[in-house]
Specification:
Length: 162
């Protein structure tokens, strides 16, 4: 069997299955847009396909951002670890130790730089998808005075102000 044909066939099959699965997810999972004014629902409407796709894309980006945010926690931990050591060196007026700590912190931060750039890129992607969702739901909210919105699974009771 020709390996290029086999690989192409498997790729096409995988893509077809993924498309079918995604389409079934969109069709079988209903969400509702609820707009509130003074904690009272003023609009309850099922998401249309464009809104649903934008909502699911945003959820995916949120999940990925959460998974990739570990470097932010590392950065916070490194900062906390050095805080007390820096304070002690300042109290002791140990400038040589302050210099060493500064260099050590810089090395630690440089090691995180690539990961932090990835987090930043994912943050931009999250923002881009949030704007896509916002643009998708704007027409549904035209003329509706509201101060908050919520997207919830169909059948779930709206609870913005509880």
């Amino acid at each position: 069997m020709n390996s290029k044909f086999f690989i192409s066939s498997m790729a096409a099959l995988s893509l077809g299955l993924a498309s079918t699965t995604f389409a079934n997810t969109v069709n079988n999972t209903e969400y509702v847009l609820v707009a509130y004014k003074n904690c009272q629902p003023v609009l309850t409407q099922a998401l249309n396909q464009e809104q649903m796709l934008a909502h699911l894309a945003l959820q995916d980006a949120e999940t990925e951002f959460t998974q990739r945010s570990a470097p932010l926690k590392k950065l916070e931990l490194i900062t906390k670890q050095f805080e007390s050591r820096i304070k002690q060196a300042e109290q002791d007026q140990n400038y040589a130790e302050l210099g060493r700590l500064g260099q050590q912190m810089e090395r630690e931060f440089q090691q995180l730089e690539v990961e932090l750039q990835q987090v930043e890129r994912q943050g931009h992607e999250l923002e881009r998808r949030a704007h896509r969702l916002e643009r998708a739901i704007e027409p549904s909210l035209a003329g509706i005075k509201h101060d908050n919105i919520q997207i919830i699974p169909a059948g779930q009771t709206p609870s913005m102000c509880s």
